[in-house]
Specification:
Chain A is mainly α and 292 residues long. Helices cover 72% and strands 0% of the residues of chain A. Chain B is 72% helix and 3% strand. Chain B has a two-stranded antiparallel ribbon with strand order 1-2. The chains are: A mainly alpha (292), B mainly alpha (319).
């Protein structure tokens, strides 16, 4: 087993390459197609090369108000990211010692991850509908709805991002060396100082990973938003709406733009993680090396 | 997790003794359990408000009455009876709901089997054949990146390939293998399964890879030294040790596919009925109790499948 590579290596290497091609091939196809010429259609071959469909989206003559949906998705994504990071790190710290309701929180997170999204989404929409009915019946007859991007929508997205955040925190603290924190305390640090100056810098790369999950999962989220977001749409919802009616490559152009934002965020996050890891390696201890 | 939890327990900063600053003294006054509540409470509240209470509402509303316009908060089994309409009268033929669930289970099984096969070998390759840590990291990242990008885009990405005038059809026509475009490539069960596999193999790769890299390599060498063939090592050493990952991955894939309505809608050309799609259709018709009843049925079936799967592991663990 030591010398040379076994035959299985080559078989599996080809299998792996085929899987990667399967993973990326179709996506690349639509990125290419979004640069169709003005006369181009939904399929190959390319009918000229242009940025016609991309610019058409930004002119707002398209079928959706791209700008507004874009801003809404971005706003929601950033808020979800911030909330996910703060709540996950806090809860992750709590899980380092036993506390009551520990298993309730753990199982809620796992259940939230695996209960089909449509059920969570339906439940949130029913909850808000009932709240609306109560408000109308008891306080204000003209009340419209409490559902919205930053109420029901935010909640729906958090039920999807928080479990990932919590699981990443478990992975972090599984390989965190508690002696570092002990040392800080022995030197007289308060719990907050120990967290701020010892724990946080060590776990920071993984915390950025949580932020990455928070933003991208929200940015692309569809199933949970579908019933729970209220009257306005996010970008993925608009895109899904287009799939049934679309005849022009502007849908691919939209797809390319959404992906570009995803890729920009991924690159930024991975770059930062890499930089932090390097700095940590340069400054000594390798504890808490990034997870993602 | 247990052992490291113990370690963390010992190190928990329950009381800061011997520190003289005022802030430390103040912090020491906060009881550890209060601090835990403060730390874990916010997340608990989110799950309570946006997951647990909504689930309760789904169950409650499934027993409410409804008319064409609104919810009627009065006990009724109509959500369920409407769902199972004609099921007994039609016997031995299957009624719509039974057929839909059978179809959902069939899709689920196909996607599960394919993602498991692909996921297992991809994870195996990454865990056992890639020796350099950097390469391992890079290649697993390569598999993970699409997960961070839009699902709808990854679905519609198949349209230019599989459509009537798509790459596959035109390629096959040009080589003369087929005379007419193949129609079942797109908006069919085939395209639904393909897209689901494309989207969700990630959920198999990650947990299986995670269990595999924890396998002590010396166990595998020991198996070889004891004269086991590659196949015997795989079946008797690697698969049992990777089982937790396999089960976790399977639970993810199965629950996602059971509840999916978006992929099935887009890739099935809105023609294929599935459990998730029934709920969506009922909601669109504003029949919330019927939607909720279907959600409860789906929840129960999903729960049964998960229970069955976690049984498999526990039994094996005890052996």
């Amino acid at each position: 087993m030591k010398e040379g590579r076994p035959r299985s290596f080559y078989v599996l290497a080809i299998f792996f390459a085929a899987y990667v091609l399967f993973l990326y091939g179709p996506m690349i196809a639509i990125y290419v197609l979004s640069f169709q010429g003005p006369q181009g259609g939904l399929t190959f071959p390319m009918n000229g090369v242009s940025t016609y469909w991309l610019t058409k989206l930004f002119q707002g003559t398209g079928i959706v108000d791209l700008g507004a949906a874009f801003r809404r998705s971005l706003l929601l994504g950033v808020i979800v990211m911030a909330v996910t990071v703060v709540l996950s790190v806090a809860a992750g710290m709590a899980f380092r010692r036993k506390f009551k309701a520990q298993s309730i929180l753990f199982y809620s997170a796992i259940a939230s991850l695996i209960v089909p999204s449509i059920i969570t989404s339906l439940g949130i929409s029913l909850e808000f509908r009932i709240v609306d009915d109560l408000i109308k019946a008891h306080w204000n007859e003209n009340f419209e709805t409490s559902m919205g991007l930053l109420t029901s929508g935010l909640g729906a997205h958090l039920t999807w991002t928080l479990p990932f955040g919590l699981l990443i925190m478990f992975a972090i603290f599984n390989r965190f060396d508690p002696r570092l924190e002990e040392a800080a305390r022995d030197l007289g640090a308060t719990p907050w100082q120990a967290f701020r100056h010892v724990v946080l810098p060590i776990i920071l790369p993984s915390v950025i990973g949580i932020g990455l999950f928070g933003f991208t999962l929200s940015w692309d989220e569809l199933a949970r938003s579908s019933q729970a977001i209220g009257a306005v749409n996010t970008l993925p919802l608009d895109l899904q709406g287009l799939t049934t009616t679309v005849t022009n490559p502007d849908i691919y152009a939209l797809g390319t733009i959404i992906s570009a934002v995803s890729f920009a965020v991924i690159t930024l996050a991975l770059g930062t993680i890499h930089m932090l890891n390097k700095r940590q390696a340069a400054k000594g201890s390798d504890a808490g090396k990034g997870l993602v | 997790m247990d052992t490291s939890e113990d370690i963390l327990q010992q190190a928990s900063p329950d009381v800061v003794r011997g520190s003289e600053t005022g802030r430390a003294a103040k912090a020491a006054r906060l009881s550890p359990s209060f601090v835990s509540w403060l730390q874990a409470g916010p997340m608990m509240l989110v799950f309570l408000a946006f997951f647990l209470i909504p689930l309760v509402f789904v169950v409650i509303v499934s027993f409410w009455d409804y008319n064409e316009y609104q919810l009627l908060p009065a006990f009724s089994g109509r959500g369920y009876t409407d769902t199972f309409e004609g099921c007994i009268a039609q016997l031995p033929d299957l009624c719509t709901i039974a057929k839909t669930y059978l179809k959902t289970l069939k899709l689920c099984f196909l996607v599960w089997a394919i993602t498991l096969f692909i996921g297992f070998w991809v994870a195996y390759f990454l865990a056992f054949h890639i020796k350099s840590k950097t390469w391992q990291m890079g290649l697993s990242l390569l598999c993970t990146i699409p997960f961070w990008t839009s699902n709808v885009i990854r679905m519609i990405a198949w349209i230019p390939l599989l459509g009537r005038n798509g790459l596959v059809n035109s390629g096959l026509m040009k080589t003369g293998l087929i005379g007419q475009p193949i129609e079942w490539l797109l908006f069919s069960e085939f395209s639904v399964v393909l897209a689901l596999v494309h989207l969700f193999t990630f959920f198999m790769v990650v947990p299986i890879f995670n269990s595999m890299i924890r396998i002590d390599k010396s166990l595998i060498e020991a198996a070889y030294d004891a004269g086991a063939t590659g196949f015997q090592t795989l079946v008797n050493v690697i698969i049992p040790l990777a089982k937790p990952g396999i089960v976790i991955g399977s639970i993810f894939v199965i629950t996602i596919v059971m509840g999916d309505f978006i992929t099935i809608g887009v890739m099935g050309g809105q023609q294929i009925a599935a459990a998730g799609k029934i709920i969506e259709t009922r909601v669109n018709a504003l029949q919330f109790p019927a939607a909720a009843a279907n959600a409860v049925i789906l929840l129960v079936i999903t729960f049964l499948i998960i229970t069955m799967m976690s049984r498999i592991v526990d039994i094996k663990k005890e052996l």
